[in-house]
Write a structure and sequence with these properties.
It is found in: Cytoplasm. Keywords: Cytoplasm, Iron, Metal-binding. Pfam families: Hemerythrin (PF01814). By secondary structure, the chain is mainly alpha-helical. It has two domains: about 10-65, no CATH class; about 75-235. The protein is about 65% helix and about 0% strand. The chain contains nine helices and no strands. The chain has helices at about 10-15, 20-25, 40-45, 50-60, 75-105, 115-150, 165-170, 180-190, 195-235. Helix 5 packs antiparallel against helix 9 and helix 6 (about 115-150) runs antiparallel to helix 8. The two termini are about 40 Å apart. The model has no long low-confidence stretch (mean pLDDT about 90). It binds fe (ii) ion (2 copies). One fe (ii) ion binds next to helix 6 and helix 9.
């Protein structure tokens, strides 16, 4: 796949991979944007084009790494983007899947109690996802923003090595998307008849989509946020030896 640049036509990029629509949605760009390049829409919407290009490419290409662009955008905008994605999972994607599951469980007359296991597993998954996201929002992101602040204003900040560094995040950051496998397995292997097959199909498709999106989200955390914070920590000499 071709790398996206500021001269790339946005509509053409989306025609090649419609999943980018969800990404640009997090920058408040919606369909109907016209015949514009990535650079033009960034200018119009007051978005940093370097950052936009980094996000679009890392979404499309697993091996993409913006080595020399890493210093050209702020952690503040990266964190804002990650928070928007969290918000999308918790307030749109998860409630939507829950609605489909509720419909599946209540749709059979007489009731098929066996379908309730789907609800139970999904509830357990939602708790894990919620914990994962809350830990990032309450611990990691404030730390990341603090480091950038310290990096930009070294004269004002306290010295000393903090208890929590990006190294801790790196070791604790788990693959929350992989845990969707239990639920997919149950649905594919053990779902008791009778049920609405079209609805089951839709739920499984949504679970796959969520898994893929979470994967891309985690890649931005691991491959862009961590190296960028580590660079600042190194400059501030915050690494223990
Ligand atoms: Fe996250
Ligand atoms: Fe994460």
């Amino acid at each position: 796949m071709k790398t996206i640049g500021t001269n790339t036509n946005l509509a053409e990029a989306i025609l090649q991979n419609h999943n980018l629509l969800r990404v640009i949605g997090r920058f408040d760009i919606q369909p109907g944007f016209g015949d514009v390049t990535v650079g033009e829409i960034c200018h119009k919407k007051d978005i940093d084009p370097v950052f936009m290009v980094v996000i679009l490419n890392s979404f499309l290409d697993e091996s993409y790494f913006p080595a020399h662009d890493l210093t050209r955008f702020s952690l503040k905008q990266l964190v804002r983007y990650l928070q928007k994605t969290h918000d999308y999972y918790l307030n749109h994607q998860i409630p939507y899947i829950q609605e489909l599951i509720d419909r599946l469980c209540s749709g059979q007359q007489p009731e098929n109690a066996g379908l309730k296991v789907v609800n139970k597993f999904f509830a357990a998954y939602c708790r894990e996802l919620n914990d994962h996201i809350m830990r990032e929002e309450k611990v990691t992101f404030p730390y990341v923003l603090g480091i950038e602040n310290r990096f930009n204003h070294p004269e004002e900040s306290e010295t000393g090595i903090p208890d929590y560094t990006i190294h801790h995040y790196e070791t604790e950051h788990d693959n929350v998307e992989e845990k969707l496998n239990d639920l997919k397995n149950i649905m594919i292997k053990y779902l008791p008849q009778p049920f609405d097959f079209d609805l089951v199909n839709r739920i499984i498709a949504e679970l796959y989509w969520l898994e893929k999106d979470l994967n891309e989200h985690a890649r931005i955390e691991d491959k862009i946020m961590i190296p960028k914070v580590r660079m600042m920590e190194a400059a501030l000499k915050l690494h223990r030896h």
